[in-house]
Amino acid sequence: MTELDILRQLPDWSIVDQKLHREFEFKDFIQAFGFMAQAAIISEKMNHHPEWSNVYKIVVVELTTHSKGRISSLDIELATQMNKIFEQLSK
Q: Which pTM does this prediction carry?
């Protein structure tokens, strides 16, 4: 899958330094933390963990598959799951 294909599938994401990148903005810290908690459960089940940070209501996520040295289908699936969590919390 090319970078263009990935970005077509995940239009809210970008590719920065060969990693999928997105900044999620929430209404407050509690909502941001809730997002991270839900995403952590999915990540653990997938055995695929994000590089991420949180400052107040912003969660910055970067995804790559270190064992493959590139973005893989695991990253795309985790990004898709994170998008779903974000959509649910943003209602």
A: 0.95
Contact in structure between 39 and 32 (CB atoms under 8 Å): no
Tokens for 13, please give them: 């994401």
- Extents of the domains making up the chain: 3-89
DSSP letter, residue 90: T
Q: Which two tokens stand for residue 59?
A: 């969660």
For the chain, the straight-line distance linking the first and the last C-alpha, in angstroms and rounded, comes to 32
Token match 């994170």: residue?
82
Query: Which CATH architecture is the domain 3-89 placed in?
Result: 2-Layer Sandwich (3.30)
| Per-residue pLDDT tens over the stretch 31-80 | 999 999 999 999 999 999 999 999 999 999 999 999 999 999 999 999 99
66 by Cβ neighbours in 10 Å (0-12 / 13-18 / 19+) ranks as exposed
d(CA 58, CA 84): 17
Helix (H, G, I), strand (E, B) or coil at 87: helix
